[in-house]
């Protein structure tokens, strides 16, 4: 019996010991035994922001707590597939050869072949990169490494340039163009500028400042030999960029310099001082003769230059399709700028209309223009220094003063001027007379005298005459209003 008990106890002890052996974890191999061998990388030469495949002798699907670097810069892991690891080539890398390294369990394992990072700048046209967008109105965008951006606005039906947008860190400029693709209206830094009456050597410009004050300069001298590539624009997308650059260059260099010389505030003109920037010069020069495939070729550089937008995570062929989202984001920024410009123009619609009217008719050292807001027949009278009164029945004076527009159907304008260097010295008196029609009527008179400009506005009723302002040529234009004889419009001689 004693032997049976002892045997049973030995059996139980053996069973318990065996069970304990089954639940003990196997020994962990020492860390120094872990190793990874990189067998290949693909491609062996590429650009930053592109995808790199790394093959090794381990399965990355089950491996954890590892990291990848290229040239010492951390590389983002995009995906794994068994023994293949896909990473993004870091944007921080300069071109050249760089080691591809996997760090695991305290050790670094490098590829026997270094990754050759190519210089994306070689894909550009003298530093300019391009991409097509999804927009019909803004189909192409150009950027460079300096953070400049240029895009043409086009008429989709005719494929001709109708505007140009330029943006950098300090300047945002929208310019609409006329039928000759010359600057028409430009907004920058809160200013609105209108251009008109181009000749081979002169142009007129009206400047509306952020406070709504209007200044007009006639016959500023300019040479249009530079920046004429706009007239070479064609259906080629590259040519559209060239035309947009030409518009910016004409506005900034050809028109901007005489505007500064004429005393137009630098805050207005400095907004177009980018006319000699690298992007504008390249787009208006070397780009014109670049092959059409330059758009697709430069697309990787476009994605790299716009990296801060975060719109192109990883570049991959076909690169033009990869960067289209980036181009669309930039186009949206340009459209926002155009919208702001349109809103500013809407706010200044009355001034713009007055400026258009004023520049449409005769001008010189003295020009006085009247406009109003209804169908009444309102008349402009000016008494010049020798006492002659210029008005509808006496449209020209012995000194050369002339009423060249007499509006009888309403709204105006009426315009009296003296040609350059023909304005007599002395006192000028400006009057407005309500001849007939709707009453009351709101009017605006714009007086320009030897480079000074001032607006005078008010309300006039039927049969009333108002002394708008009297001024002496060469002196500062006063605030306005003076006593008149209160001419009764109905007593004036009938209109012929």
Provide keyphrases for this structure.
five-stranded antiparallel β-sheet; 3 domains; alpha+beta; nine-stranded antiparallel β-sheet; 496 residues; Immunoglobulin-like; elongated
**What is the number of domains?**
3
| Secondary-structure content class | alpha+beta
Average pLDDT taken over every residue: 87
Oligomer: single chain
In the predicted model, the low-confidence regions spanning at least 5 consecutive residues are 1-33, 226-234
Give the beta-strand count: 29
Radius of gyration based on Cα positions: 38 Å
Largest beta sheet: strand ordering = 12-13-14-15-16-17-18-19-20
Form type: elongated
Main sheet makeup: 9 strands, antiparallel
The end-to-end distance, rounded to whole angstroms, is: 152 Å
DSSP summary: helix tally: 9
Helix content: 10-25%
Strand content: 25-35%
Write the layout of secondary structure elements.
Blueprint: H1 2-23, E1 38-42, E2 45-46, E3 51-56, E4 66-70, E5 73-74, E6 77-81, E7 84-88, E8 96-98, E9 100-104, E10 107-110, E11 115-117, E12 128-132, E13 140-144, E14 149-155, E15 160-167, E16 172-177, E17 183-188, E18 191-196, E19 202-208, E20 214-221, H2 237-261, H3 266-269, H4 278-283, H5 294-297, H6 299-305, H7 319-322, H8 324-347, H9 349-360, E21 366-372, E22 377-383, E23 389-390, E24 402-405, E25 414-418, E26 427-436, E27 441-449, E28 452-460, E29 465-472
Parallel strand pairs: 2-11
Antiparallel strand pairs: 1-3, 3-7, 4-5, 4-9, 6-7, 8-11, 9-10, 12-13, 13-14, 14-15, 15-16, 16-17, 17-18, 18-19, 19-20, 21-25, 21-27, 22-23, 22-26, 24-25, 26-29, 27-28
